[in-house]
Design brief:
The protein is of the alpha/beta class. It has a single domain, classed as Rossmann fold (3-Layer(aba) Sandwich). The protein is 51% helix and 15% strand. α2 packs across α3, α4 packs parallel to α5 and α6 packs antiparallel against α7. The chain starts with a strand and ends with a helix. The structure holds adenosine monophosphate. The site of adenosine monophosphate has 17 residues, from α2 and α3.
Length: 191
């Protein structure tokens, strides 16, 4: 059973790297950001609610986010495990996750804030295949929204690093080298 969480600031490569790990381990990749963007594109009630927070770089309310993740991880396809990308994002979400699916390992993709800003400033995500290209900007990659998202990371997400460190589940991985090098280090930790 592998229930792996990916943590790290925006621009650390969570999406790209966690998708590759999911493909290799053959367990589903669940990204809250992707789920919200799909819901926004489909103009569902969830999408409309999430959009209000996402456009401001703020976190979508916990009640909505926790219910969405619970619905996904309790699906049959997640019986052998899952990879979470972008969840949990605060202590309350981490505690909620512990109540319905205890994580087994947590990977922290570590990069300096300046690198994070530089990477975010020029990226574009394909709505269909979810690949991130580094040539243009995503809706919420405008400079003032980036600042807000990084502030939310520092204030709300960073405390969960300690939370998982205390549980002895945390693995800190330097996310500045190439994707292949990062993946090698992750598989050494996970396999
Ligand atoms: P991401 O693609 O992971 O950077 O997510 C994009 C946006 O979706 C974030 O800036 C938040 O507004 C929202 N979001 C994603 N994951 C969560 C979460 N776990 N809790 C609350 N909001 C989230």
């Amino acid at each position: 059973m592998m229930r792996v969480i990916f943590l790290g600031p925006q621009g650390a490569g969570k999406g790209t790297i966690s998708s590759r790990v999911s493909a290799k381990l053959k367990i589903p990749h669940i990204s809250t950001g992707d789920l919200f963007r799909d819901a926004i594109a489909a103009q569902t009630p969830l999408g409309k609610e999430a959009k209000k927070s996402i456009d401001q770089g703020k976190l979508v309310p916990d009640l909505i986010t926790n219910a969405l993740i619970r619905e996904h991880v309790e699906k049959k396809r997640c019986k052998k495990g899952f990879i979470l990308d972008g969840y949990p994002r605060n202590i309350s979400q981490a505690k909620s996750l512990d109540s319905f699916a205890l994580p087994t390992q947590v990977i922290l993709l570590d990069i300096p804030e300046q690198v994070s800003i530089e990477r975010l400033a020029g990226r574009l995500q394909c709505k269909i295949c979810k690949r991130v290209f580094n040539i243009n900007a995503r809706e919420d990659d405008k400079p003032q929204v980036i600042k807000q998202r990084l502030a939310a990371y520092r204030a709300e997400t960073e405390p969960i690093v300690d939370y998982y460190k205390k549980q002895k589940k945390l693995h800190r991985i330097d996310a500045t080298p190439t994707v292949e090098i990062i993946l090698k280090k992750i598989f050494r930790v996970l396999c």
